[in-house]
Amino acid sequence: MVPHWTNGTMNLDASIGLQRGTLRIDAQLSAGAGETVALVGPNGAGKTSCLHAIAGLVRLERGHVRLGMRLFDDGSVTNFVRPEDRHVGVVFQDHRLFPAMSVVDNVAYGPRSRGAGKRSARATAHDWLERVGITKRNEKPAALSGGETARVALARALAYEPDMLLLDEPLAAVDASARVALESALRSHLANFEGPRILVAHDIGDALALADRLIVLESGCVIQSGTAEELARRPLSNYVADLAGVNRFVGHCRDSIVTIGNTELTVVSSVIGDVVVTLHPRAVSLFPERPAGSPRNVFELRVLHVESLHDRNRVQLTGSLPMVAEVTTASVEALRLCEGRTIFAAIKATELVVSPH
User: What is the pTM of this model?
Assistant: First the structure.
């Protein structure tokens, strides 16, 4: 069973046109051989529907899905390749193991469906279960933990020797104690898989840990695509800014002054007109009183929330210019940061990145 490579390459090219209830999906997606692409976006953005369309579980109304030189779907009745004929491995969010089959037979199902004999298929299944660290092989799926079920689902998808791998939030149903180990195993197996890998992720941490590139979907459309660093450098929506963990302001710039509602920001920029200003939370300095020297970009704000993230803390501030600051735990204690506390936020003009809107 050899994957259907075409001259050593197998790129996904998809234009997904669907109507799912009130949501109209028009999304251009791509992934190269050996590339892991994460589809991220708010709930209801169309991420799973796009994944199902690529897998053939949902038929296109318009657009196309191509893998290498093969056309899977173009919205017509005649040009539609059934899911079982696409040679695509799928790991579902709820894993969807066959409850009446043993673990080893679940994994052997893929090789069997591609023509392998029972003995050969079971040997392949045992090999993959060994690779993913599963010893419960003759039990039914009900005897497995969430983390074990996820590993078996991954083994089943890979034992099929697919040309492309699709994963719908593979870590979502896994308890916290098993997530770190499963994430490490996923990263390793994805790195060794030569075809395109599409990952639906709700948790940005999962996307950053597993993906080479992110595609952001909002309301059925691709808003932005790129690495995490590229998205953070110039987020094109508030959702992307939140995703990337940066502040984003929209205003009008003239004479190095950006007007945002009734608030003004001094910037270092020659841009004139409507602009987007981005600011990393680490560039926001917090003071208990207005800092001396009267720097131009100082705002009296109120603490809404303090979120601890391992070695740092994100402080959500509200007021004339709502923003997020990122400070150390020592700073949280020294400034007595808590909900409702008034604080002064200072920003250097050189830390503000200004782009035409």
Answer: 0.78
DSSP run (H or E) holding 54: helix 47-55
pLDDT tier at 301, thresholds 50, 70, 90? very high
Predicted pLDDT at 65: 97
Are the C-beta atoms of 198 and 10 separated by less than 8 Å? no
pLDDT at position 2: 42
Which pLDDT value is given to residue 295?
65
- Smallest CA-to-CA distance from 327 within 298, 354, 288, 278 is with 288
Continuous segment of H or E residues that includes residue 236? none
Co-location of 228 and 271 in the same domain? no
Residue 293 to residue 117: CA distance in whole angstroms: 79
- Note whether 225 and 257 are same-domain residues: no
In terms of phi and psi (left: phi > 0; alpha: psi -120 to 50; beta: otherwise), the region of 61 is alpha
Give me the helices (H) in 174-280, please.
176-191, 204-210, 228-233, 238-244
pLDDT tens readout for residues 7-40: 446 899 999 999 999 999 999 999 999 999 999 9
In a domain, 210, yes or no: yes
Which residue range(s) make up the domain with 211?
12-233
Q: Return all residues near 12 (Cβ < 8 A) that are at least 6 apart.
A: 29, 30, 31, 32, 54, 65, 66, 67, 164, 196, 198
Strands (E), 21-170: 23-31, 36-40, 62-67, 70-73, 88-91, 164-168
pLDDT tens, 127-137? 999 888 888 88
Name the DSSP letter for residue 84. Answer: G
Q: Look at residue 6 and tell me if it is in a domain.
A: no
> For residues 31 and 27, what is the distance between their CA atoms, to the nearest angstrom?
13
Q: What is the pLDDT of residue 294?
A: 60
CATH classification of the domain holding 293: 2.40.50.100
Three-state SS string over 144-172 comes to: CCHHHHHHHHHHHHHHCCCCEEEEECCCC
Confidence band, pLDDT 50/70/90 cuts, at residue 4? very low
Q: What token pair was written down for 44?
A: 């209801």
What's the number of domains the chain is made of? 2
- In a domain, residue 1? The reply is no
